[in-house]
Write a structure and sequence with these properties.
This protein is of the alpha/beta class. It has a domain of 159 residues: Rossmann fold. It has a 6-stranded mixed beta sheet with strand order 6-7-8-3-9-10, sandwiched between helices. A 4-stranded antiparallel beta sheet has the order 2-1-4-5, covered by helices on one side. Strand 1 and strand 2 form a beta hairpin. It is globular and about 50 Å long.
């Protein structure tokens, strides 16, 4: 589904070149559930941004279903993100004036879909992430774990092929982190979408089927795991 072929990313910082990624090659299959781990500054967020079409590599190529992201113009990249990618952000990025239902609905309205046509789909997803009792509450009325569930549901509402999560448990305590990882693994099985998330918390490795560790912008290891979580 996704091929990262000898990708490097170099940033110009203060008049000097900084290499965020160096000669990275990965193949990511449909339905993957994998983590990219490593310390701060290892290149985790950079690789998510490249996969998500938010940035371009300095060299190398990224292919999605045989199509090169490098060759896409701004409109084509926007369409790629809209049609194929779901994002989960560390800080949730929920709209504070919207309810749970409205936050999950919002991406569909941006696609010019009518609320009446997708109402049941949104309600079903709210139920799947366990937030039916909170469906009319706003983010300020929710716990951190509940906000992250809203963010996960929003990322899936357009049936993406890939869900990219940047430090999805960083703002959660141990118990909520456990529940969020179990939920993500369940939704990965149910929706058949690939989940790729970066984290500095290596305890999450027991939930993933594949773990890639970055160190100083290069791959230190790439290994398969047998997850211990839901339906392992």
């Amino acid at each position: 589904m996704l091929i990262i072929d000898h990708v490097s990313k170099v940033y110009r910082v203060g008049g000097q070149d900084f290499t965020a990624l160096h000669d990275i090659s990965l193949e990511i299959e449909e339905g993957a559930f994998m983590s990219i781990v490593g310390p701060s500054g290892s290149g985790k967020t950079t690789i998510l941004n490249l996969i998500g079409g938010l940035d371009q590599p300095t060299s190398g190529e990224i292919l999605f279903n045989g199509k090169s992201l490098n060759q896409m113009d701004r409109n084509e990249l926007a369409a790629y993100r809209r049609d194929n990618i779901g994002f989960i952000f560390q800080s949730y990025n929920l709209l504070p004036v919207y309810t749970v239902y409205e936050n999950i609905l919002f991406p569909l309205l941006l696609n010019d879909l009518k609320e009446s046509d997708v109402r049941e789909k949104v309600r079903s997803l709210v139920d799947q992430v366990g937030l039916s009792p909170q469906i009319n509450k706003k983010p300020t009325e929710l716990s951190g774990g509940q906000c992250q569930r809203v963010a996960i549901a929003r990322s899936l509402i357009k049936d993406p092929s890939l869900v990219l999560a940047d430090e999805p448990t960083a703002n959660l305590d141990a118990e909520n982190s456990y529940h969020i990882l179990e939920l993500m693994l369940k939704l990965n099985r149910d929706f058949k979408a690939a989940f790729i998330f970066c984290t500095h918390d290596e305890k999450v490795t027991k939930y993933v089927r594949r773990e890639v560790r970055l160190e100083d912008g290069t791959i230190e290891w790439d290994k398969s795991n047998q997850p211990e979580g839901y339906l392992a």
